[in-house]
Amino acid sequence: MPTISNFYSMKDASKHSTKDDCWIVVNGKVYDVTQYLDDHPGGDDVILAATGRDATDDFEDAGHSKSAREQMEEYFIGELDTSAPIFTEKSYHVKLMQLAKQCWAVPVTAVGISVVVGFVYLRKK
């Protein structure tokens, strides 16, 4: 009998990235692992580092046992909605502008220091 599943976007899943509210995405499935964080043999920081993105590679690289995979099903809450874009064009431009605002200070500082050093050097002559 088919089951009805909830669908969540990666944006939805990324909103749950704290120790008090933790979701991960593995193999296109979304898991609420909040209650499992303290019991995870690798520590909660391993899981928390995998939130907000597809953690399939991390999960597979860890070499989880069959029983660990079966235990994961207890925390299954829905499937990843692949029709929702992960990054919209608007969010890309917003992030690019934020990065540009952060990076302007270095070249401006270098030019400012060069100007000051130039004035000091010319004054001594």
Q: Any idea what the shape is?
A: elongated
Mean pLDDT, all residues? 84
Radius of gyration: 23 Å
Spans of at least 5 consecutive residues whose pLDDT stays below 50 are none
Q: Which structural class should the secondary elements be placed in?
A: alpha+beta
Strand content: 15-25%
Helical residues, percent: 40-55%
CATH topology of the largest domain: Flavocytochrome B2, Chain A, domain 1
Walk across the major sheet and give the strand order. 1-5-4-3-2
Tally of contiguous helical segments: 6
Number of strands: 5
CATH fourth-tier homologous superfamily of the largest domain: Cytochrome b5-like heme/steroid binding domain
Q: Just name the CATH architecture of the largest domain.
A: Roll
Domains, number: 2
What is the CATH class designation of the largest domain?
A: Alpha Beta
Taken in chain order, the helices and strands follow as EHEEEHHHEHH
Head-to-tail CA distance between termini: 90 Å
